[in-house]
Amino acid sequence: MAGMTTARAASKRELTRAQILDATVAVIAREGTAGVRIDAVAAAAGVSTGLIYYHFSSRQVLVRAGLAEALERYPSQPRSPGGREPLTHLVEELQRHIGLPEDDGESRGRVRTAGLQAAVFDPELRPALTHSTELWEAVVARLVGRVRGAKANPVADASTAEMLTAIGDGVRQRVLSGTLPRADAARLIASIVPVLVAGGAA
Amino acid sequence: MSTTGDESSRGRILAATCQVIGGQGIASFAIKDVAEAAGVTPQLLYYYFPNREALVAAALEYANDQAPSVNLLPGDTGGRGFDAVRTALLAEFDEAPSVRNLNVLWNEVATLSTQYPELQSTLERVTAGWDQQITVGVLRGIVDRSLRGDLEPSLMAQVLTCAVEGLSQRWLAGVTSGEQARAALELVLAALAGPVPDGA
User: Fold this and answer.
1) Under an 8 A CB cutoff, do B114 and A198 touch?
2) Which of A120, A194, A163 lies closest to B183, judged by CA?
3) Tens of pLDDT along chain A (202 residues)?
4) Where in chain B is the domain with CATH 1.10.357.10?
5) Burial profile A103-126: b = 16 or more Cβ within 10 angstroms, e = fewer
6) Could you tell me where in chain B the CATH 1.10.10.60 domains are found?
């Protein structure tokens, strides 16, 4: 709802563009980029296919804009600790990003997977992907610092966060591709986080 | 082409598939481009692989057979387990087009496999095989005390292979350099190195 005021104030043209982007983001979160078809996006956004081509010159341009927008919205804010131990909080925040169904993690996972995959062949996506990755790592680094307490060190915590989020990327790809059962994935994260957090501080 | 024999035509087709998909992805690759790169006719290609799915599944097996981390480990029996595992896994981040193409193919299949049942079963098999290979290396490391003895060998192996897959996605996507990916993997390896830290 926060965007509504801005949207209302914007011109009709910008509003239409935003509707198309919203519809594209929703399709990517549900089906990945393969699901982005001009006719489907037009139907979901309630506009004509001609209007889509007016705003986005080709499907590739639409996919790129939708992915960049989706990566920007990729929620990197951690949930409040809510009385959890720092280590439990860190483990659970990482588990939110490995493609498990809880908390809409599958959709988030599809967005990140789609971003990583598309950027291989589309360098223009790299700034959005890099930005999204940096935000996620910064959140995890703060949580690592809380677990380490007095031993926290910004440089070491950032390195540990890079390791943990990269493992998260690998685990997520296996969960979404069906090669790693979800319970095993959650357990893997829970088992290895304490080891890597303890190891990196030494 | 007819003089080179069946096996090498098949091998050339699979190498060409890795090359073509490595350059443009699975979604848009054309069978005729693969045939051309392999120097065979599309008819011969279809003789070996009746459809795209069969071709990609076979190419994944081929990529797995060629992968540095699968191949280096069994041959490296002299040194410590830690060093053998480390050398094998770090070799995945090689800028050489042939190694990079194998990684691209693997990632593309992992992203798309749920839509194609035949690809999914192949991906499951090669992933399990890779994890097992690394587990064997990890067990060697536990025995020679170059890796920690207080963690499950299969957990250590899976953490390492998942780290390689995650870092590989980032490296191929251009958000991490090969050097940075290797450095991150070294940190994971260091945390698993033996002997067990005091108090653990």
Assistant:
1) no
2) A163
3) 455 555 555 688 888 999 999 999 999 999 888 889 999 999 999 999 999 999 999 999 999 999 999 998 876 678 888 889 999 999 999 999 998 988 888 898 999 999 999 999 999 999 999 999 999 999 999 999 999 999 999 999 999 999 999 999 999 999 999 999 999 999 999 999 999 999 754 4
4) 61-192
5) eebbbbbbbbbbbbbbbbbbeebb
6) 2-52
B2 pLDDT above the threshold of 50: no
Domains in chain A, start-ordered, CATH in brackets? 2-72 (1.10.357.10), 77-201 (1.10.357.10)
Give the model confidence (pLDDT) of B135-187 as tens digits. Answer: 999 999 999 999 999 999 999 999 999 999 999 999 999 999 999 999 999 99
Q: What is the pLDDT of residue A103?
A: 83
Q: Which residue in B190, B92, B167 sits closest to A162, CA to CA? A: B167
Contact A171 B162 (CB under 8 A): yes
Enumerate the residues of chain A whose CB falls inside 8 A of the CB of residue B171.
none
Angle between helices A38-45 and A12-31 (to 10 degrees): 120
Please name every residue paired with B193 in a beta bridge, in sequence order, or none if there are none: B147
Q: Does B163 touch chain A (CB under 8 A)?
A: yes
- What b/e sequence results for A63-83 when a residue is b if at least 16 CB atoms lie within 10 Å of its CB, and e otherwise? bbbbbbbbbeebebebeeeee
For domain B2-52, the CATH superfamily is Homeodomain-like (1.10.10.60)
Shortest CA distance to A111 belongs to which of A150, A144, A145, A66? A66
Distance CA(B173)–CA(B76), nearest Å, equals: 31
Give pTM, 2 decimals.
Answer: 0.90
Class level of CATH domain B61-192: mainly alpha
Helix (H) or strand (E) holding A75: none
Mutate to test the interface with A, among B187, B189, B192, B198 (most CBs of A within 10 A): B187
Tell whether B187 lies on the interface with A, counting CB pairs under 8 A.
Answer: yes
Following DSSP, what letter does each residue of B31-88 receive, concatenated? Answer: HHHHHHHHTS-HHHHHHH-SSHHHHHHHHHHHHHHH-HHHHHHHH--SS-HHHHHHHH
